[in-house]
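Field notebook, page 303. I keep forgetting to write these up properly, so this time I am using the form the group agreed on. The chain and the ligand, ketopantoate, are recorded exactly as supplied. Prediction of the bound pose follows.
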Amino acid sequence: MTWHVLGAGSLGSLWATRLARAGLPVRLILRNPQRLAAYRQAGGLTLIEAGQARQYAVAAELPQASTPIHRLLLACKAYDAQDAVAGIAGRLAPGAELLLLQNGLGSQDEVAQALPGQRCLLVSSTEGAFRPAEFQVVFAGNGQNWLGDPSDPRPPTWLDELQRAGIPHQWTPDILTRLWRKLALNCAINPLTVLHDCRNGGLAEHPAEVATLCAELGELLQRCGQPAAADNLHEEVQRVIHATAANYSSMHQDVALGRRTEISYLLGYACAAAQRHQLHLPHLLQLQQRLLGHLQARGLPVN
Ligand code: NAD
Ligand code: KPL
């Protein structure tokens, strides 16, 4: 069964090269003829791991190719997911499976609603990768990929292929807990690093702000039926701030590079959920307003 990977960005390239390295059939789906021509010119995807670079000539095609898709890794940003899937929906075979790699929450529902009858597996990834150049990826941080399907606890039959490819993974019936927990961590850390213009470790100088946000996020998780995701949230946020002290958060990097953030699927999703539950979380709301103002002032999208 061919793995179609939509999006030759950081994580898409990381997955595609490891699958190809294991001899598994992989095809990249690139956005348009210009990207496809540039990819062919580059000669493949290059994975840089522990300082060693190796190129893999992974096959590539356009969204409108005619072959059916049975298994798709959707590896674009959350704000691109719905449009990206619309571009290949007509190619999905009956019973096709999609792995949704997007951070945050909201995009998964948008995709699933557009594809009734297809199985959407959700992925929460703590691996780290970045692109030093087009069609090159640096494997920057070991982590885990949690996979699950909120509507069906049975694992898919192909997890052994991830094993063969050396892609760390764990099937979990509680994928929503994982996604909510990561969303809460990202809401407690990422916006503050942008507003204080600091590395994650810089938040150790703002303990009261972090504690207040964690308390509100904990309330939100409880109200949204995610008590396990609320467990010891403040302690874990402090642990992550400490463990990743030297790093800039992903949102800080996006803003610094003038790139669109995934705010609508992180803090935006959290604030909308609070509103839906008529839960008053003044500090979270104020954080959202401050962040939106910051993005607007820099000419960046606020969605
Ligand atoms: P990225 O921007 O590096 O890659 C996304 C790719 O998708 C881009 O190449 C883009 O051109 C492509 N794309 C978008 N729309 C497309 C379309 N319609 N057709 C074809 N290609 C399309 O993003 P990333 O860093 O790989 O992140 C993907 C998701 O994974 C995000 O939600 C991110 O938050 C999450 N994530 C990333 C990391 C990381 O270390 N990079 C870690 C954990 C989670
Ligand atoms: O996931 C992160 C990010 O930067 O997006 C961490 C390191 C957990 C900070 O929220």
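OBSERVATIONS:
- DSSP finds twelve helices and twelve strands in the chain.
- The pocket of ketopantoate (ligand 2) is lined by residues 185-186, 189-190, 200, 240, 244, 249-250 (CB under 6 Å).
FOLLOW-UP: compare against the apo run.
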